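Students often ask why we bother encoding 3D structure as a string. The short answer is that it lets us treat folding as translation between two languages. Here is a chain of 375 residues written in the first language.
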Amino acid sequence: MLEAANPQALQLQSIAESTAEQQQNHGEIEDSGTMSALRGHGEGHGQQLPPADTGVAAWRLLFGAFVVEALLWGFPLSFGVFQNYYFETEPFRGNKNIQIAGVCATGIAYLGSPFWTPIVKRYKKYQQQMIWVGWLLCICALIAGSFAKSIGVLILTQGVLYGTGELILYYPMLDMVNDWFVRRRGFAYGILCAATGINGLIMPFIIEILLNKYGYQTTLRAVAVALVVLTGPILPMLKGRLPAAHHSTLRKTDLSFFRKPLFYYYALSNLCQAMGYFFPSLFIPSYATSIGLGPATGALLLALVSLAQFLGQFTFGILSDGRLPLNLLIFLSSFVSAIAALTLWGLARSLAPLVIFSLLYGFFAAGYVVLWVGE
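And here it is in the second language, the structure alphabet:
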């Protein structure tokens, strides 16, 4: 995925600023503005908001977000298996533009963030509707992609349309997570981001088997049906913590951070990390095939990356809640993953170094994503 300066970081930063002012004392009504909004909405005096960072409602929201993250966001991260299959199969055999579909499926969700996030924040009361619309677009993209007979149609469906659906769905869900988790936000995002790692332990193998046995058309339709069954009943769990009347009273985003040099340092680090972060998940399967290891090995390596990603994101999420300096975690994530890519992957001609690379890279590189909320 090719992102521009990890725009998700900007979205999380602005949301963190607003929610930090709203959520003191773990979930009680924090200021007179909130109380006034509740009263204006017809609520009784002294009503309290559900508690943040704890309680059944908070964990229900996190569970729902975890499932959606694992299945809908995790699916494009298995595109390397599709890419390997498409490159060897008609009508896409040998087409070097196949990778564009994978880049679009993930990249649009990041590149569109600066434009979509202000709309999400401005129209919070419609966030559940946004999630349903994005979900429907993702499902339709897979079904439409199953009818693709040219690379252009494949890019438009499995790439552009799916990426657009992700964009519309994902950021309202992130805003809800920020509503519910304040002091334990790093922990919450460690769990949330690790969902794609758990997905990656299973999905590449399932997709590999389905593609080899039934072809891409049946596989895409089967995945679409599975996503409907597994995620459709979960979407009603995704509800914000703050009442609709309160949303309309939120102040505009504070843009003063544009005048702070620290913002540009972090933005530059995000840009540099984003330029290469998703290349391994896209190209490890085809690289394994190119050195004679076979398609099944590519799926295995993706699964190892996902396993390490799950462990790394959960660990970095916990450590980012004030246990270690943020800059130290950023350095460890960037340095170790860069050295692993330069040495282990760059020089690998057999399975062993690729296995070690997959574990190191998955753990440390994926941990960087969780740190966005800390930045």
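Translate back mentally: The chain has a mean pLDDT of 80. Keep this in mind for the problem set.
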